[in-house]
Amino acid sequence: MKKNEIISLAKLAMRISLYQFLILTIFSFAASAYNVKAQGALDKQVTLSAKNQNIKSIIDKIELLTSVKFVYSPKSIDALRKISVNANKQKLGDLLNDYLEPHDVGFKVVDDRILLYSISAAKENGLILPRPEMRRDGVITGTVTDGKGGPVVGASVQIKGTTTGATTDANGKFVIKKLEAGSYTIVVTYVGFISKEVVVDIRDENKTLDIALSEDNLQLEGVVVTGGGNPKTKLESSVALTSVSRKDIVNRAPLNSTDLLKAIPGLTVESTGGDGPGNVWVRGFPQAGGYIYLGIQEDGLPLLPTGFNTNPSVDQYYKTDLTIQNIEAIRGGNASIIQYNTPGAVVNNLSYVGADKQYGSFKFTTGFSQGLYRFDGNTGGKISDNVKYNIGGFYRTDKGVVDPGYSPANVGGQIKGNMTFGFKNNKGFIRLYGKYLNDVTQFLLTSYYPYDGTGKPTTYKNFDMVTQSMSPIDTKWAYTDPANSKTFNFTLEDGMHTKLGSGAAQFKYTFDNGWQINNNFRYQKTRTNTHYSAPGGIALRNAATQYYYVDGSMAPANSSDYVVTANSNGMVNRDEQIVNYLDLKKQVKNHAIFIGAGIHQYNRNDERYVFSTRTEYKENPRILQTTAASTALQGRTPVTKNTFIGDTRTLSVYGGDEIKISEKFRLDLGARLDNQNVKGKRPYYALNANGTPNISASATNTIAGYTDYDETETNWAVSLGANYKLSNTTSTFARLTRAYNAPNIGDYNASAYNAANIKERPVYLAEIGYKYAKNNLAIFASGSYSAIKNTSLAFNNIPTTNSGPQTLIAFGSTRTWSAEYEISYKVLNPLTLRWTGTIQDSRYTDYSASTRTNAALMAELGDRVYSFTGKRTERVPSLNTELSATYDVKKFNVFVAASYIGNRYTSPSNSYKLPAYVVMKAGAGYNFTKALSFRVWADNLTDARVLTEGDVRGDQFRDFSQVAPGSLMIGRTLLQRTFFGSLAYSF
């Protein structure tokens, strides 16, 4: 532009003041400058949302966002007029053209300043000026494909640093036109794939690109939906989060809900209970089993309060099937803000919720080695433009990984669905959920094996604990409770039989002022009948004692026969839950604010009966009795009755703020306050001489009475996180957290309850991590510190000779240093490797137990204090890692995974070390058509034989240097090798 034209335009825009005269002088000197800085200013990207704001305030915001200086006369352009702007990463030049030109405001750039003027006034003065625009003459065309060479539809293809780009069509093709000669970086992104950057030079010819994307197995560029705040990608978040996609679930083909958790670093998972309850340790926190520090959610709401072991077991409240779209597992500090009493991790199972296009999957699965027949189905779509649905479930029957001597061992299924009613203004929806679960699972427990010190299961005569069951085949018995004349018909064949019904509703809406409300409600009712036989002692058969079977026939005897003492458990567990979370969030400038409140009402009414039995020591044994008489108890003697009658109400308030300090740096703070009230009836079994309840009396099969309890406590958690985005593909994060572990109804219900034993249990966590996703490589790595104080570590069911099973009350503290990692790398076009794992050192920092807390133990073991301070946490390996490979080429797919689990100790005394082992899983699939596929796979492919636990109740008191080889010991083992096949149809 000529110098005199700029001066004329500046005069027109400025006119009056000395300041404006000085600006005019600056423009005069800059008029002859080459216009490189000007174009750089126009190419700056702006993200700005402003509704009904005056032009001056909008220009002020643009100056703040871009550091570009505007020069103008407010009167000349009528800067107090109100306009609206909605720009997302838009070039500044395009923004000014789109939003200011329609309001008679033109612009010109000289050096690094932008002059604003009235277009109509310029025309009146003979100044007709074209828009500033780069010369564009090049074209980039190309195709974006997936790992199998198929087209990726809807991928974004952008020129890095600009808003220029295209979207791939139905054939994966794209075109970017009008490009100036030069060098460009093309960025290709698509949900579920790692972003890819390609550098291309345009000179005199056009360019054609073929770009193959790698699947984002770690989903680092996916959006996090679990928890408070605004959704963000994993690269932008300050949490340790693992996503398990639908494809991951298909490849891993989990035997049960617990088995799938093995894909998540930071968790130590034992699923050797078959389809029955599993055990999950989080970052080394001590526990006897169950899900003590891990919360399980379904579509954002907890299925059960966190903190229970075995009964109830949350893995029986949900089942993994085709209705699950993906899983998000948040580990560490932020979990304590998302769900109350959950300092370790939260696993959220997210269901399919319908779509504009009809879809569906149906699968038939058979287990070649266990007689499995299973049918899964799921389908969804839309009923109208605003109404979508999804419905699915499964049904199965099988003989069990280990044959219990009756069939089926596992039988049942579930049906679940949801329907979404979207508002016509596209600002929200109402979604209704429903689920009915009716499922029987076999609960595999410990067996006996000859001890040889290797930590591997050995056989005794013809009994092999890996492949054979010690559950008695005399499965049925009846018992009438003399206290209430109620008759129970128990049967081991009913296993853990869960019947669960739930209904839920979600309301989500975004108001015009930017506030978003999300209310999530569920009512759930569950009844679980639990039956299992647990061995507790073994001895050579006394030749002088004649035994009979329950039908009255004489049991044969050999001199080397053993008799097993076991407990038959019959439990009727009932619970009713109401849970509601109300969340509000809003973006206020650079703040993503969220606040919420919740209530979780959990009511329980359980009756639990334990019966002692004697059985043979062999596969599928018979029950032995000392008389030939046949009774309804079928050789079982009532030992104890216990009840859990109580209600837990938890009121919660929580909130936080994520502050976008800059485009690269985010800081977030979350806090939670939980008020827990537990009230109910605590059983006692005897009276003192003065007629008061004797709470120290051992449990029997007759409850003498109940005492009422009503306890309230308040706990809090706070977490501070930061994320720094080094680039579009790399970020680092850090987090500090103070959380808590609260007692549950089981603690308050104990007959020997003592308020002094319920101590505050703070949890402290710190972590720092690194995330990277570009081209063929994705990495997540973190280091963490975790510590818990004063946690209850009571030993239950300690065997004694004279007084039966006893409890030793103790408290302890631990700390864990750990490193977690997930690495995915596409080696070749069809081959992807994934390496995940945890390295950890978890030790007790303060842990001692005195026999003075239990008179029976003191009488048998003496006045002793057992100190485990400095010892490793039991059953937690120092290294737990998995290397898997996926090979996808055309219609063929292969998946192989090898897991290494390091050595563990069976008890806190560290007296018995179990060896490290490797277990393999493998599968192969073939797609006959796009819709029809076949798959075969195997678990424990190499048939590894190793113990996963020893005698968790007795090993801490045992000197294994004094145990003679061949002595029969309790243990549990890996499940034996199993083979499966499936035929699936998807559309």
UniProtKB/TrEMBL annotation:
PROSITE patterns: TONB_DEPENDENT_REC_3 (PS52016). Keywords: Cell outer membrane, Ion transport, Iron, Iron transport, Membrane, Receptor, Signal, TonB box, Transmembrane, Transmembrane beta strand, Transmembrane helix, Transport. It is a multi-pass membrane protein. It comes from Pedobacter xixiisoli. The chain crosses the membrane at residues 12-34. Residues 447-941 form the TonB-dependent receptor-like beta-barrel domain. One of its GO terms (molecular function) is siderophore uptake transmembrane transporter activity. Belongs to the TonB-dependent receptor family. It comes from the Bacteria. It is found in: Cell outer membrane. This is Outer membrane receptor proteins, mostly Fe transport. GO terms for cellular component: cell outer membrane. Residues 234-346 form the TonB-dependent receptor plug domain. Its main location: membrane.
